[in-house]
């Protein structure tokens, strides 16, 4: 391997091969970045973390109360989870991920935030299918407490409600699927979602059918490959009290 590129791990999963890569970018003064790929698709890069962090900032800023119980759907490189833990009101955090290798990378310290997340007693990883757990037939996100409710659920798995990692996720983003999932959020609680696409009218209609209020924030972040800003969307939705 080049000194500027290393494939740290590569494993087969039910969704296809997943790999963890590390490289140094000369165009960014030899900055070291970590990347996660699923097949040929990029899932996450430590070069682009602003929107993942804003998902936690915006979602928790809208969440009332103290001693918050929070779920993050999708571990990735851990930026949403780590940002959530910076809120002193968070008393417990469950991070659900379908890909066991991704959880392993954190537990083995192969990614920068792994030791911080595994070293925080508030944080627990759950290996599971977020979408199955959230469905009407699912037991919820805490394997020890079926149907447990949470103050906030922050989701960063699919690229967008229209660009899915697997077709079976589609029901979750429907009006019916969102109603089913909302039982896992406490009254007045928050659902936050990252999307790589602009706000989508049909999805907004579905959200408004399940939640009392829905807001969107378009977040800009620098993209050195395009020599301009890129944009993603954070949805912040609140249940009625």
Report what the structure shows.
The protein is of the alpha/beta class and 241 residues long. The protein folds into two domains: 5-43, no CATH class; 48-238, 3-Layer(aba) Sandwich (Rossmann fold). Helices cover 23% and strands 37% of the residues. It has helices at residues 50-61, 79-85, 100-107, 114-118, 130-134, 175-182, 201-210; strands at residues 5-13, 16-25, 31-38, 41-45, 68-73, 90-97, 123-127, 150-155, 185-195, 213-223, 228-238. The strands form two sheets. The chain has a seven-stranded mixed β-sheet. Strands 1-2-3-4 form a four-stranded antiparallel β-sheet, with helices on one face. Helix 1 (50-61) packs parallel to helix 2. The longest helix is centred in the first third of the chain and has 12 residues, at 50-61. It is globular and about 50 Å long.
Termini separation (Å)? 55 Å
Order of helices and strands: EEEEHEHEHHEHEHEHEE
Helix content: 10-25%
- What shape does the CA trace take? globular
Subunit arrangement of the protein? single chain
Classify the fold: give the CATH topology of the largest domain.
Rossmann fold
The percentage of residues in β strands lies in: 35-45%
Write down how many β-strands occur, each being a DSSP E stretch of 2 or more residues.
11
Number of domains: 2
Structural class: alpha/beta
CATH class of the largest domain: Alpha Beta
**Count of DSSP-assigned helices:** 7
Strand order of the largest sheet: 7-6-5-8-9-11-10
């Amino acid at each position: 391997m080049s000194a500027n590129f290393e494939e740290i791990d590569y494993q087969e999963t039910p969704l296809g091969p997943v790999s963890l890569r590390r490289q140094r970018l000369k165009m960014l003064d030899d900055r070291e970045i970590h990347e996660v790929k699923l097949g040929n698709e990029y899932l996450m890069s430590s070069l682009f973390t602003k929107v993942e962090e804003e998902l936690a900032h915006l979602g928790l800023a809208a969440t009332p109360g103290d001693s918050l119980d929070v779920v993050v759907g999708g571990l990735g490189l851990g930026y949403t989870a780590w940002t959530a833990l910076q809120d002193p009101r968070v008393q417990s955090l469950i991070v659900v991920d379908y890909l066991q290798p991704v959880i392993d990378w954190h537990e083995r310290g192969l990614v920068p935030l792994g030791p911080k997340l595994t070293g925080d007693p508030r944080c627990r990883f759950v290996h599971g299918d977020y979408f199955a757990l959230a469905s009407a037939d699912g037991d919820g996100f805490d394997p020890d407490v079926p149907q447990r409710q949470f103050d906030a659920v922050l989701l960063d798995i699919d690229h967008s409600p229209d660009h899915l990692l697997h077709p079976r996720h589609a029901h979750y983003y429907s009006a019916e699927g969102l109603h089913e999932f909302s039982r896992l959020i406490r009254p007045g609680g928050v659902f936050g979602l990252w999307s790589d696409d602009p706000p989508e009218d049909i999805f907004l209609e579905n959200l408004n059918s399940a939640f009392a209020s829905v807001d969107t924030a378009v977040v800009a972040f620098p993209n050195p490959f395009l020599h301009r800003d890129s944009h993603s969307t954070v949805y912040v939705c609140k249940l009625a009290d």
